[in-house]
Design a protein that fits this description.
49% helix; mainly alpha; two-stranded antiparallel sheet
């Protein structure tokens, strides 16, 4: 796909699937609102509003201005207009504010048996909604009229969000038939290779995840990676690799068949809080334990995915991955933070918070999309703390799907030849 970031066919499937999700949530809101067939199911209404916010934020973050207010209603129009990203974020925040009002009101009959994320646990849904408020408030930092007020709000929302990994929004309904999306893609395509620049970041920090996160094409786990060795040379050089199967190392994560997908993780909430406090000028002594907790939670999440790879039922049918490293221990995490992370944090606190978040979001949990959003957010603030080694042009957004560029003149005009993805920032990253 390295030559296709501007093609309208490349991301057509996720473009369409996001509309399906938004349409489902819209129907649930309609049925549970005043006058609806299921009026009085307030918690269900709050959940639908929360998922509307989540999916709309995902949609506009990667595509920019999109049809929404006139979309999903064929009785209104078949060629909906594009709504501005600024207006869409007002809608996102409205959804979350209303969700926080409705969630604690309860349901008449209960949603537990149908709630695949939290089994009807209202407190966890409320914490999830607050965590999303923290994420999106931070995302809009570049366009905030009062940045200090926005940062204080991020801290406040984070404080109302998850207090442990047991509360995070980890979607886990995966098994031998219902597959983790990263595993599903790799198992069907064998089209992914391990990134050399990511390995370099682990090597630079002597990160304990280094010996857990890479596997050969023959499914042997790799340990002791270092520059200049034959095994290191099997890492894909970013943007310069051959597009060929069964040559490069892969990430162990691509075999994590049953690993959870993180809609919002405990470690993300901690990283948001640490970043906000750093930008507010809080002391290192205040921020350091938050960063430490974030790093520890991230490594635990990484280990969970690695362990899922070793026991993946489909992979084991073909012999499984040969494990050659021991589980990462609490003592190793403690030593890693003390010897590697803390000195870098003391030298440049914000840079290390950002880089640790980058390392944390690599995995089977689906958090790379949020890192893409963060990198664009940081660039908008004039910060280039993450070293990206791919020499090709960096897409500033993704192109609209061809299901709409071929049928909706409004989207067709916005899409043009697709080259705008390299030149037009989204609104919250400095665009118009």
């Amino acid at each position: 796909r390295q030559n296709q970031p501007s093609s309208s066919s490349t991301f057509n499937n996720p473009y369409n699937s996001l509309y399906v999700k938004l349409s489902n949530a819209k129907n649930a809101i309609s049925k549970t609102s005043v006058g609806g067939a299921e009026e009085g199911e307030y918690t269900t209404l709050g959940i639908a509003q929360g998922m509307s916010a989540y999916n709309l934020a995902l949609f506009t973050a990667i595509f920019g201005d999109v049809p929404y207010s006139e979309a999903m209603d064929i009785n209104l129009t078949m060629t909906p207009k594009l709504d501005s990203q600024e207006e869409l974020y007002k809608e996102i925040n409205r959804f979350l504010d209303e969700a926080l009002i409705n969630l604690p009101k309860g349901d008449r009959f209960g949603i537990a048996n149908y709630d695949l994320l939290y089994n009807g646990n209202v407190d966890k849904w409320i914490k999830f909604a607050n965590g999303l408020k923290a994420r999106y408030t931070m995302r809009l930092l570049h366009v905030a009229a009062d940045k200090n007020a926005a940062l204080k709000a991020v801290v406040d929302y984070a404080n109302k969000s998850f207090t442990s990994a047991s509360e995070e929004a980890a979607f886990n309904v995966y098994n031998a038939q219902n597959l983790n999306p990263l595993f599903d893609f790799q198992w069907s395509r064998d089209g992914l290779a391990a990134s050399r620049s990511l390995a370099d970041k682990f090597i630079e920090r002597n990160d304990p995840r280094l010996d857990r996160n890479f596997t050969t094409a023959k499914w042997d786990q790799v340990t002791g990676l270092k520059a200049g060795t034959p095994t290191y040379n099997l890492l894909a050089e970013n943007g310069k690799n051959d597009q060929v199967q069964y040559k490069y190392l892969t990430s162990t994560f691509v075999f994590a068949q049953t690993a959870s997908t993180q809609l919002l993780s405990f470690h993300e909430v901690l990283f948001l809080k640490a970043e906000a406090l750093q930008r507010l000028g809080e002391s290192s002594s205040t921020i350091e334990p938050i960063l430490k907790a974030a790093v520890k939670a991230a490594i635990v999440n990484s280990e969970n995915s690695v362990e899922a790879a070793f026991v993946a039922p489909t992979v084991k049918e073909y012999g499984g991955i040969i494990e050659k490293s021991a589980d990462i221990t609490d003592a190793q995490v403690e030593a890693y933070f003390t010897k590697s992370v803390k000195p870098l944090f003391q030298a440049n606190a914000l840079k290390e918070i950002v880089n640790q978040k980058y390392l944390a979001f690599s995995g089977a949990s689906g958090e790379s999309t949020e890192m893409y959003n963060d990198i664009r957010r940081w660039k908008a603030l004039g910060e280039n703390f993450i070293t990206l080694k791919n020499p090709n042009r960096f897409p500033l957004r993704l192109p609209y799907g061809n299901s709409e560029t071929t049928t909706n003149p409004n989207v067709q005009a916005a899409y043009g030849n697709g080259q705008y993805v390299y030149s037009e920032q989204v609104w919250w990253a400095g665009g118009n």
